[in-house]
Amino acid sequence: MRARLRTVTGAAQEVAGITRTHGLLHIFLSRGSARRLFWLLLFVAALIGCSVHLAKLVQKFTERSVESQLKLRSERAQFPDVTICNFKPASASLLSIINFLEFHSKNEFKFEVFDYFEIFWGNFDNWFKEDTQKRPQESDESYDNRLEKVCKKVLDVMWVSGDTRDISQLDETMLLSCRYNSEPCSHKNFSLVQTSRFWNCYTFHPDPRQSSSGPGGRGAELDMVLFTDSNEKYPDLYEIYPNGALPDGCITRKFLRSKAVNRLLQSNEPQSAGLRIFIHEEKSFPMSETEFVDVASATSTSIKLRPVHNRLMSKPSRRCSEPPIETINYVRHFSNASLNVVTKAYSKSVSDFVVEAQQSILHSNCGCYSHLLPFSVNTSDLCYFAPPQEWITPSDAVLKRIDCHDHWFEHAQRQSEELAKEFQHRMWCQFTQQRPWQQSRRWPPFSAIQEIWENLMVPQVRHGVEFLPEDGKEHHIFRNSTKTRQEIQLYLLARGSDYCRFNFLRKFNFIDRLLGKDYKKKIIESATSCVSRSELAKELAAVSISLQSPAADAYEEKYKYHWTEALSEIGGTLGLWLGISVVSTFELLEFIYILVQKCRRNDDDSDTEE
Which ranges does the record mark as transmembrane (predicted)? Predict the structure, then answer.
């Protein structure tokens, strides 16, 4: 035993003579017992202090604290996607009188849209019969309010099951002028997105061949002159019924009123004429975003974007999702009877997870999905879908599915806040905020209205067709129509005052007027003096969307305590308390090696002696 102790002591003294750990040096080389005890106690105290210090460093590292940094205009800015939606889903022009035979003895009215209602849907007479009939002793006001909810459901059925693309806004008629970075753009740079709230929306995608920065080193800019199609100057058609005695039903009570249809589709939101412009990343579904700007008709609106690229760190107090982000395929647009459904993959945000959960509630209870939320299924799987053979007379199964939807949709909506909290951790760690800032003024000046009419609007009717062959588009409802949408819309504006119209019409042959042979087109091209400037101004909006700078801000979070800093502090702590470094560590390993060798040598010597 004493031999082994002498071996350990000898090995320790040998290492102590060369080690840089000074406490060990004094413990083993001091000659007096008091000095050895002093250095031993001091070394133990230093070892305890070092252990506490190291524990604090480990705790600091495991907390993963985060620091943030905002760098102004430090990264390249990318022009976002821009989605334009009209506040009025249905075209106000098509809901107005489009063919009044002014010299016809019977004063017949013809409605392009209402022909579709009658032929394909039977004027909805067989839909929700019990709810569309006036009840005994029910006041007109009470009946009118109740009927609005029913007629809104009828329009939703038509949107889901039929094809409303011809009835809603069209990019060809909406876009009067378009320039991106001073270069021409057209409706070919836009793609259709259908939603139950706005019907037809159009997303602008910058041409990748065009520059992403504006001229003169400025940020990219999109300039548009838009036709808002909010013409509702014509009165509701009470006068075609004697003494205002309107029959029961949606067609006569609601749909024959040009303003009522859009009010129903707007879910009784405040009536407004203009556009909602969503500004979003290409990977985001437009209606899932909260960054949008409302643009009123008869205004010129400048929208400045100040993008900031956010790169956040996921931490216990606020978790987020790192790339790659989960995706979902939403339906962008569809055609008649659930044909040609077109989808696109989008990155799932928190709101998309909420929508997915709400749709799951509906499907688990009704076996179908809601059209009032973004959906990723064929339209035939929507609760409000009716196959073409049931458009005129719906089956009980269709009506039951609709009732089930209405009940469980309200339940799903009440769960919105709770679901948003549940999926808050699904927010993206990396995303871009556009931070739009808008400034509007009255527009256009009266002096510019005639130029807008002659140079931007009249050329739309000269082709005589709504879609050119190179557009790759076709009519979906009005395939046999002899009139184009542009002709309908502009004719309403070109009619002007009665006196002006009477003097102008005297130039045309009576038979041409009666048969409509290029009659309206000639009026549009020649009746500049008859156009009401105040009415035309209400149909226009100028929009300029630009990046405030070609460079974007960057907000970045990073761990305040990186592993390299932790390693440095650990080394400093060991050096401060114990004088240990990387070299000292190898000395300790050397001490163990020497000790093992000496012990083994002594064991061999003992065996030899025995």
Answer: 37-55, 574-596
Q: Summarize pLDDT for 431-481 with one digit per residue, the tens.
A: 999 999 999 999 999 888 888 988 888 887 766 555 555 555 566 666 666
| Rounded-to-integer distance, Cα 361 and Cα 411, Å | 9
pLDDT at 15: 60
- Kindly write down the DSSP assignment for every residue of 352-368, as one continuous string: HHHHHHHHHHHHHHHSS
Q: How far apart are the first and last CA of the chain?
A: 16
* For helices 396-414 and 140-161, angle between their N-to-C axes, nearest 10 degrees: 100
Angle between helices 350-366 and 396-414 (to 10 degrees): 140
Amino acid type, 516: G
244: helix, strand or coil: helix
With cut-offs at 50, 70 and 90, classify the pLDDT of residue 395.
very high
Whole-angstrom Cα distance, residue 145 to residue 293?
Answer: 31
pTM: 0.81
* Helices marked H in 383-430: 396-414, 416-422
Kindly report the three-state secondary structure assignment for every residue of 254-314: HHCCHHHHHHHHCCCCCCCCEEEEEEECCCCCHHHCCCEEEEECCEEEEEEECCEEEECCC
Question: Do the strands 274-280 and 292-296 form a parallel or antiparallel pair, or are they unpaired?
Answer: antiparallel
Which pLDDT value is given to residue 533?
Answer: 81
Cα distances from 367 to residues 154, 159, 382, in angstroms, run 21, 20, 9
Query: Between vectors from CA 520 to CA 517 and to CA 521, what angle results, nearest 5°?
Result: 90
Cα 473 from Cα 485, distance rounded (Å):
14
Axis crossing angle, helix 498-505 with helix 519-526, rounded to the nearest 10: 120
Report the percent of the chain where pLDDT is more than 70.
75
What does the pLDDT look like over 502-548, one tens digit per residue? 555 555 554 454 445 466 666 676 667 777 788 888 899 999 999 99
Question: Taking a C-beta distance cutoff of 8 angstroms, is the pair 49, 577 a contact?
Answer: yes
- CA-to-CA dists, residue 99 to 95, 102, 236, 483, angstroms: 12, 9, 16, 10
277 pLDDT higher than 70? yes
Helix (H, G, I), strand (E, B) or coil at 12: helix
CA distances from 530 to 47, 133, 503 (A): 98, 44, 10
